[in-house]
Amino acid sequence: MNWSWNDTDPVEPIEDLAADTLLDFIARLAETGDEEGYFSREIEMNLVWREADAQVAFAKRGRETAEISKRLYAARAHVYDAHYLVGARQGVEAAKKIQEVIRTLYGTEAETK
After folding, report:
1. 74: nearest Cα among 33, 14, 21, 17
2. Taking the alpha carbons of 88, 82, 16, 28 in that order, is the dihedral positive or negative?
3. Residue 11: is it exposed, middle or buried by C-beta count within 10 angstroms (0-12/13-18/19+)?
4. Which residues of 32-49 are buried (b: 16+ CB within 10 A; e: fewer)?
5. What is the pLDDT of residue 55?
6. Any alpha helices (H) in 6-110, and if so which ranges?
7. Measured between alpha carbons, how far is 101 from 19 in angstroms, rounded to an integer?
8. Which residues contact 95 (CB under 8 A, 6 or more apart)?
9. Shortest CA distance to 15 belongs to which of 48, 39, 37, 46?
10. In angstroms, rounded to a whole number, what is the distance separating the alpha carbons of residues 92 and 86?
11. Inter-residue contact 33 to 67 (CB < 8 Å)
12. Are 63 and 86 in contact (CB under 8 A)?
C-alpha cells in the first residue's frame, strides 16, 4: 500500500486551551478509531501539550496567582496523561482526561458537541 498525507485525518490547529478548542478536540479524540486518525490526534496532542506547558512556564515566572498556578499544573498533568493514552490508542479515555483539563481550568462540566 502506498501511504500519503492525504490518508490522514485533518490536523486541526490548537492555539489555546479555551473550552471550545478543547471540546472540539475531545470530539475528535472520541471518534478516532484508525491508525491514520491516531497519527493526527498525536500531532494535535503535541499542540495541546505545548499550550499547557507554556501556561505553566508563564505561571512559574510569577505572573499568575497561586490558585491559578495550581490549576495550570494540574491541567498540564491531565494533558500528560491524555498524551500517553493517545499513544496507547485509547481515544475515549484520552478524551476523558481532556475533560478533566476543562474542569480543572474552568470548574465546569465538559459536554461533548
Report:
1. 17
2. positive
3. middle
4. beeeebbebbeebbebbb
5. 94
6. 19-31, 35-58, 66-87, 91-106
7. 9
8. 26, 27, 29, 30, 82, 112
9. 48
10. 9
11. no
12. no
Residues 67 and 78: their CA atoms lie apart, in Å, by 17
How far apart CA 5 and CA 107 sit, in angstroms, is 38
pLDDT at 1: 47
Q: What type of residue is 37?
A: G
pTM score, whole prediction: 0.86
Torsion of the alpha carbons at 43, 110, 18 and 92, rounded to the nearest 10: 0
Model pLDDT, residue 45: 97
pLDDT (0 to 100) of residue 2: 52
- Determine the pLDDT at residue 5: 52
Mean pLDDT in order along the chain per 10 residues (113 residues): 60 95 96 91 97 94 87 97 96 96 84 46
- How many whole angstroms separate alpha carbon 44 and alpha carbon 12? 7
Q: What are the extents of the domains in the chain? A: 16-106
